[in-house]
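Researcher: Structure prediction, please.
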Amino acid sequence: WAERSRPPGRAALPVATGVAGVMLTDAHVHERSLMENRQHAFSGEKTVVNGRALYQLGRHARGGPAQPAQTNAPERTTRSVIIAASLTGTSMSRRRARRPRRPRRSSGFRFLLAAVLAVMAITADYLYELDTARPAMTWMGIPRATGDAFTWARVLRNPGFMLGWSDLRGNALWVTYRLTALPTEVRRLPRPERFSADWRAFGLIHHDSYTRSGYDRGHLAPNHAMAQLYGRDAQHASFRMTNISPQRSNLNQRVWQRLEQYELSELTARFGEVWVTTGPVFSGERERLRSHLLVEIPDAFYKLFAVTDTGGSPRLFAFLIPQQVHGDEPLARYVVSVDEVEKLTGLDFFHALEDPLENRLEAAALAPPGI
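Model: Predicted structure follows.
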């Protein structure tokens, strides 16, 4: 067939390659195309040679000529590649070179990296709490435990106030917040209908824990002051059960309410800024709510006020109010010294003060002005 299709004056150039023979003619073969495109020569597949699509048909093994594909390229001399099948009828193909695979990182390395990053993030957050966030929410140091495990507390920071939570007593042992004069434009924020559990206390104490207990849900950080000074988030935080202690109705709704009103109106008007530390006192036999045994019932409550007078000197005032009150007692009756509160609670307040100044201020039982 090659002899019949060869143009006059041209000699055939046979080339033998193993068991397969390749016949190159002027009409179908070009040496350069063979070298550049030999990887595309597949029996029965469409290949591209020098920009032209060529169909290499498998019937050339039986002597049939290959048919070139029609293209839109300009007319020029077309040369194609004919691959003769081997004597056994198998087609020749070249295996494409594979890219070397990049080594995969093991899952153990990824887990280690994630663990290191998590530890770094937790450490940074804890250092921020210790060095910046917590000191900004208290005056002259966070209260320190000086007694047994029942005086230990976990610090929980909230919008507007901070507290030390005791899992053993089911109460906050201390709550601290800062008061200033109320803004001229009063915020109209609706009071939440229910108290909420605090997930940081594992959600063990909730609204119904006080139901039919004989005690009110007494706020330590006052709802009204938090709402007016720090907004809705602080108000909702004040309704978490970690800010609540069991109080008798006469104490909660009368004496304690009058004291909260006094600190927000009288003290802020006289001193501008007032730092308040408040909490329960457990001095007698341990008694717990019959409706929830995790909540211990306090015997009394304290409030400490730290202010700065016009001369720039700090002053401290302290109140200690028992659970059993009639409700119409004068507030001056409950004035005590800070030392007395520290003795009953097992806590050390304002320890960042210099010792001589701290000893002098805490030993005095001074009634605040306007009481």
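Model: The chain has eight helices and 15 strands.
Researcher: Thanks, that helps.
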